[in-house]
Design a protein that fits this description.
The chain has about 350 residues and is mostly beta strands. The chain has one domain: Peptidase/esterase 'gauge' domain (Methylamine Dehydrogenase, Chain H). The protein is about 0% helix and about 50% strand.
Length: about 350
């Protein structure tokens, strides 16, 4: 089974107290711009992690049972207007939804013991994305409003991986020339795909760079002087957000637009941020290390930090075009998730 690479955020070198004191002086650090809705996991699950929200306010995510903190205890969910729907085909052991479009179609991956298939969920019906001949597993990561899906095929025999675009029943493979591994992260409504590529079997095995695939052309992304990079989101204007490590190994993020990189500025004294997405208004979300992990919204050169009252950490994982943010974190020993709704 393919391992999902989880990048560990680089810890700051300055004392935590310095970052905490700084945070008290930052505009927006008290979340005064947002109303929070705190949400517990669906019934029966011990934790919940939202992955995406569409412009209809429908949220998808996944959670697990406390007794089964592995793939076989994972269940998917849809949340809308105060109600949950648990996603889990009766014959599957586990499921992780990863994306939703404005047609309310959900994509993700899951399966039985020792196998994985991508899926599309539409109003109670599942369509399964089977790997092409010679490929053992399939993963679906994102879907656009034309219902085009991006994901990965994986060959467990030799460890090779290729990305795909699935549209109207047909697969098109993606693998930039000269690279061995590719993992797509997002697709916009024009069909432009972004993600990461590596000259190894995965980014952990070799050099990693971001990429854009549009109109049959690949553009490799790596800000000047950086060691590696990956792209995590693209909006319908073609603006890309991504992250990586600079020449000193510090974790940084960037916006790429019209061939130019703009590095996300960092709050003084703290240097770790991780951007997870961007909406069609150019607003970026992610998480930052500021006296603990806090979610953030970045717009017009300014940060607003997200931390529901009483929580000791939070991460923002998705944003829609209405500016509604979803994320997860902890209050006491409870893993919860939240919606942050702009007050204005």
């Amino acid at each position: 089974m393919m391992h999902i690479i989880k990048r560990t955020a680089i810890k700051f070198l300055l004392p935590v107290l310095l970052c905490t004191a700084l945070c008290l002086n930052l505009a927006g650090c008290n979340d005064g711009k947002y109303k929070y809705i705190e949400l517990l996991p669906p019934r029966g699950l011990s934790a919940a992690f939202p992955t995406a929200i569409n412009n209809n306010g429908v949220v998808v995510g996944w959670g697990y049972f406390a007794s089964l903190k592995n793939f076989y205890g994972y269940k998917g969910f849809i949340y809308h207007a105060g109600k949950y729907e648990v996603l889990h085909p009766s014959e599957w052991f586990w499921m992780i939804p990863t994306g939703i479009n404005d047609n309310d179609l959900v994509v993700g991956w899951g399966g039985f013991t020792g196998e994985c298939k991508g899926f599309i969920y539409n109003d109670g019906e599942y369509s399964f994305l089977l790997s092409e001949e010679g490929w053992d597993e399939a993963y679906a990561f994102a879907i656009n409003d034309s219902n085009a899906v991006v994901g990965n095929f994986f060959d467990t025999t030799n460890g090779s991986s290729k990305a795909f675009i699935y549209y109207e029943g047909k697969y098109a493979e993606l693998l930039p020339p000269g690279w061995n591994y590719v993992e797509p992260k997002a697709i916009n409504d024009s069909g432009a795909v972004v993600g990461e590529v590596s000259d190894g079997r995965a980014c952990i095995d070799g050099i990693c760079k971001g990429f854009i695939y549009s109109g049959g052309i690949y553009t490799i992304l790596l800000p000047e002087g950086w060691q590696d990079a990956w792209a995590s989101g693209i909006n319908n204007n073609g603006v890309v957000v991504g992250c990586g490590l600079d020449g000193n190994g510090a974790s940084k993020c960037f916006i790429y637009e019209n061939g130019q990189y703009t590095e996300l500025p960092l709050p003084e004294g703290c240097f770790s941020v991780r951007a997870t997405g961007i909406n069609n208004n150019g607003v970026v979300v992610g998480s930052a290390e500021l006296g603990g992990t806090k979610g953030f919204v970045y717009s017009n050169g300014e940060y607003t930090f997200l931390l529901p009252k009483g929580w000791y950490d939070a991460e923002a994982t998705g944003i829609n075009d209405n500016g509604v943010v979803v994320g997860h974190g902890h209050r006491y020993a409870t893993t919860k998730w939240f919606m942050a709704i702009p007050i204005s």
